[in-house]
Amino acid sequence: MAEPTRPDLAAMIVPLGRSLMAAEQPILAAHDLTMWEYVVLTALSTEPVRTQAALADAVGADKTRIIPVLDGLQRRGLLTREPDPADRRVRLLALTPQGRRLRDTTRTAIQRNEERVLRLLPAADRRVLLRALRTLADLPRDTFLPET
Amino acid sequence: MAEPTRPDLAAMIVPLGRSLMAAEQPILAAHDLTMWEYVVLTALSTEPVRTQAALADAVGADKTRIIPVLDGLQRRGLLTREPDPADRRVRLLALTPQGRRLRDTTRTAIQRNEERVLRLLPAADRRVLLRALRTLADLPRDTFLPET
DNA sequence: GCACATCGTAAGCACATGCATATCAATGAA
DNA sequence: TTCATTGATATGCATGTGCTTACGATGTGC
After folding, report:
1. Which CATH number fits the domain that encloses residue A69?
2. Distance between CA B31 and CA B99 in Å, rounded?
3. Is A135 in Cβ contact with B120 (below 8 Å)?
4. Are B30 and B109 contacting, i.e. CB atoms less than 8 angstroms apart?
5. Is the distance from CB of A17 to CB of B13 less than 8 angstroms?
6. What's the CA dihedral at B48, B54, B55, B59 to 10 degrees?
7. How many CB atoms sit inside 10 A of residue B112's CB?
8. How far apart are CA A125 and CA B106, in angstroms?
9. Is position A17 within any domain?
10. What is the pLDDT of residues B1-31, one digit of tens each?
11. Chain B residues with CB inside 8 Å of A13's CB?
12. What ipTM was reported for this prediction?
């Protein structure tokens, strides 16, 4: 039984994710956003989803738990919910200009902090890392599940 | 305000971590281990820690919540706890041969599955990704916190 | 028209987590 | 010697999460 040559991928990524989330927290607080609020603001501009349930699925949230998040964002004028004329069950979500601005300023602050950390890596490694992460992050979730 | 050229690092890493944890779950179950049990088994062979509290900190666990995990592992003969003669408050932890074997077979299965996913990346990217992740994962947690 | 599915919404339950508190035993410093 | 600190342990509380159930409104297919 040979010694493994690397740590588990999960063992590196999961704690790293925790550290990054912890790092985001003060930035989000300074922008008066919770994590899920920010996730929704970000997803609404990058994911072409039609239904709230699809949005929840896309961002890994629970569709029932996301309702109060959407309520809050709507109440603050950061997003709108309009019935879809093609299917009156559906509420179409859209960012307001205010929502877009808040998303952008928050994202800028978050990414600035991330760049500070990423600069600890060589530039070429940085580019590859981001490219590879993007590829992995875009994989369907069940890609990772073990085969039976 | 220019469009960002990349997703947030956290926005890629955190869901990826979730997917990897979900993928691990059936493998751990097949080896009769919980996630924290496996984390402890793995950490005991790679982290030179003396106290249980230090182990908990090293693996991002709560020192009080880790006690029942250690109890269970000890009861199953996977690890031993002996008083440290140099400081009788401390319980020195060590894997048994059985614990080492279980850790190894589990890790092999987990990494085999991870390799299957990693092979979706070009080989050179794979190497850089793992190297970069290792670097980032080894950073002290407060490296990531924003500067005041 | 009817049975079934879907969407949004609310709420319940079990469990995990982060943090705090408390206790006992042991250690180290003043 | 006294007191503060440390290590292990147990437990409580608040919060978050995953999943489930249920409901009303709407849509689809037969």
Report:
1. 1.10.10.10
2. 12
3. yes
4. yes
5. yes
6. -110
7. 11
8. 30
9. no
10. 556 789 999 999 999 999 999 999 999 999 9
11. 13, 16-17, 20, 133, 137
12. 0.92
